[in-house]
Amino acid sequence: MKVATSNFSFIAKNAARKLRGYPSGSERYRQLVQNPAFPLNGARIGLLTASASRLGGGVFEAVAAHAVLLRDQGAVPAIFALEDEFSAQDRDRFPGCEVTVLPVKGPRQIGFAPGLVDALLAARLDTLHLHGIWMYPSAAGSIWAARTGKAYAISPHGMLDPWITGRGKLKKALARAGYERRSWARATAFHALTEREAADIARECGEDKSVVIANPAPPLAIKANRVRGPQVSFVGRIHPKKNLASLIAAWSALYARGALPEGARLTLAGWGDDAHVADLRASLSHAPGTIEYIGPIYGQAKADLLARSRFVALPSLSEGLPMAILEAWAAGAPTLMSSECNLPAGFATGAAIDCGMDEGTVAAALERALALDASGWRTMQDAALALAGGPFSGRDIALRWAGFYTALKSRSPAD
To answer: pLDDT per residue over 13-62, tens digit each?
Structure first.
């Protein structure tokens, strides 16, 4: 059964109308979401994911933002994840939320946590929402749904994109047969980040039961509207799908023919499997010194890099809806990105330049971007900030989630 916007109850729509105009931190906002009539007030919503730490990359950032968004709307978010080396350190990314991490037995790639199902059942959740697929949490979520009969949602986060499903085919075939197909069949609804992802979900699952809601951008973080130096940055996972090879080759070609402005720098920041990081370091051994890989950065260090970046680049081969782009826009950095980032609003409004995915198109986009005068760059920056503070703002996305969970809750049996 498709759970669509038309199913959202009157109470959710009425609550959304009442919240408009009140900042999420204001006293009036707090009073409204704590009212018993508000759809998420007191709802226990479980967020199940493979990692509640920086090791989860963009999915972790999305879950952390989602948890705070739900908390601010009166829900009680309960996060369940597999334990890893940064779980304790990153727990503060879920303020005011219940966080449960469980040890993994056996290969981390599978993520079998023997106590996960019992922990989910003991939490007396109203709804369970799985973020990410292809690991044991999918099996645990499916078991929870079967035993409780309550609403169960799944956000694949781009993991059903053909580029992804075409890699590691044996592992994914085993996962489909072992637990994913049961999990998908038991889902009350899927959450898609884009219409394109909704089509991927329908193709894999054989039915259309997706609601499209974008990731929210972080709060705007810009202190001065000044033109920045010729700094281009990449922040994200070090992985072949990010297409850093084309970015490095394009920059190197521009450098070789003297087409970069004086002082131009390309900074690559991120984490990844040891093999992928080793490949990146090897590729940089013959690259110009104006390209630097600085390793993973978090918190204030990441904020500082974005704040001094004139552009953020992501010539990706495959994405769901990248948090890196939303973070860049919120920091006042326009973007160079491929159409695979699934954010056409960036191109339509002028917040982004389509850089394509091959060396030639990326080089052309870099040259065009770095040649912009102050007025042209500020126009792009204004467009980026308008998107992060408007249709992708936490407020607008939160109101859509209120309707989504209200529709889900109406399908769950009472305790």
So the answer is: 455 555 555 555 556 555 555 555 556 778 899 999 999 998 888 899 88
Count of residues in the chain: 415
CB atoms within 10 A of CB 210: 26
**Contact at 8 Å (CB) between 78 and 123?**
yes
Phi, psi of 108, rounded to the nearest 5 degrees = -60, -30
Among 260, 259, 273, 250, residue whose Cα is nearest residue 361: 250
83: helix, strand or coil: coil
Amino acid at 145: A
**Domain residue limits, the chain:** 5-215+393-409, 231-389
CB-based contact 209:377 (threshold 8 Å): no
Q: Coil, helix or strand for 237?
A: strand
Q: Which CATH class is domain 231-389?
A: alpha beta
Same fold, 5-215+393-409 and 231-389: yes
Q: What is the pLDDT of residues 255-311, one digit of tens each?
A: 999 999 999 999 999 988 899 999 999 999 999 999 999 999 988 999 999 999 999
Q: Which tens digits make up the pLDDT trace of 310-326?
A: 999 999 998 888 989 99
Phi, psi of 348 (to 5 degrees): -65, -35
Give me the torsion for CA of 267, 339, 357, 365, rounded to 10°: -60
Signed CA dihedral, 187, 192, 198, 201: sign only: negative
pTM of the entire predicted model: 0.76
d(CA 312, CA 365): 12
What dotted CATH number matches 5-215+393-409?
A: 3.40.50.2000
Q: How many CB atoms lie within 10 A of CB 399?
A: 18
